[in-house]
Amino acid sequence: MKKSKLMVIICAFILLGGMPSLDKSQAAEPYNLGVALGLTGTGALYCKDGLDAIKLAVGEINAQGGFLKKHPIEIFSRDTQTKPDVAVRETKDLILRDKVRTVLGTYSSACAVAIKPVCQEYKVLHIPAISNSESITKDNFSPYTYQVVPNSYMQAKAVVLGVAELAKKKGWKEYVTIASDYEWGRSTQENTVALLKEFAPEVKLKKEFWPALGETQFTSYITAIMAQKPDFVIGSIASKDNVAWMQQAKAYGFFDKIPYPGSLISVSELIIEAKTLTRGLVGLCRAPFFAHLDVPMMADFVKNFRAKYDRYPSDWAVMEYDAVYILKQGIEKAGSIDTEKVREALKGAKVNTCRGQLFFRTIDNQLSCSSYIGVVADDPKYPFPIYHDLVEVKGPDSWRPESEILADRAKEKK
Prior knowledge:
Blueprint: H1 2-15, H2 22-27, E1 31-37, H3 44-62, E2 73-79, H4 84-96, E3 102-105, H5 109-121, E4 125-128, H6 135-138, H7 152-170, E5 174-179, H8 183-199, E6 204-209, H9 219-228, E7 232-236, H10 239-251, H11 254-257, E8 263-264, H12 267-272, E9 282-285, H13 296-309, H14 315-334, H15 339-346, E10 350-353, E11 356-361, E12 366-367, E13 371-377, E14 386-393, H16 402-413
Parallel strand pairs: 1-2, 1-3, 3-4, 5-6, 5-7, 8-9
Antiparallel strand pairs: 9-13, 10-11, 11-12, 13-14
């Protein structure tokens, strides 16, 4: 009799919700999302937009109940200070203390390369949506790292295809490079030089210049380059460094005297330097919103970003926003937030992004995203210049052949 009463009490307790079921417990489990960005230092210019876009995407998904409509997302962000050692320390803290399942970021390819093995060791997904050195996905491959930005080889090839044509038309024979002396600058410059040898062997590299990351005074570089009298210059400088470089070079009349084709001029620079940026420059960017306003996801993103932050989104905002929604699609395909299932679901997956439907290449988890080249020009639709005569170089037309990747990996094993 006593047993019978006890069972009735237990059953009533369960029915009233006193002992939650496994499904309800799982439904309440949050998804801890790590963000490692250079919120201070030279990367701050790009990273603020990136973090704001992540917050926007997370807010939209949480309004629908979170991932799989039952896992609310919680953001845990850290400042890498654009320093690899700090990035490693903060990433470990995100993983061990905050129990994040994915790390988004980072600014500085050197930081991305540094935290990649950390994420692999702890079996955490890694989406470095701003960093784009090819080394991130090509060298020491990690199955936990997925790249959603055109890498440094892809961007270099896009530039070289255009520069090679210009060199033929204009009779250019010699050029100079200026690149920030760290992972991204080195990777981009080296790929550009190698590809120019392939596509325009008659054009010779005259001299290389390597300002340190975080450089603010470019006068000595400007005068030294002008003294070389090259036919053109290719630059690989980004963020605050790029703003300082371009403003100081313009003051010297640099762009009026020497062609400067295909160097990074992202939407951030278009907006910040709206009054001073030289019109007619041929620039390169990674994810300009104005290139894909015909894609409903991009149109909605731009509208919502502007409504929330009262400004237009940069390339960096577009790519971080895409990163969150790509993660969402991976989770939905896996039917689970389990990291092993999600990374397998993303392998070779087709995903919808603000830049259209793209796919991950299985050999390196590189997204088939495009690079964009155009002429800086004013446009009545915007209070800043955009790119006219925009050329979109598709990912599969610009990424490194798989045979070369396999050959490089074979060398790594020796």
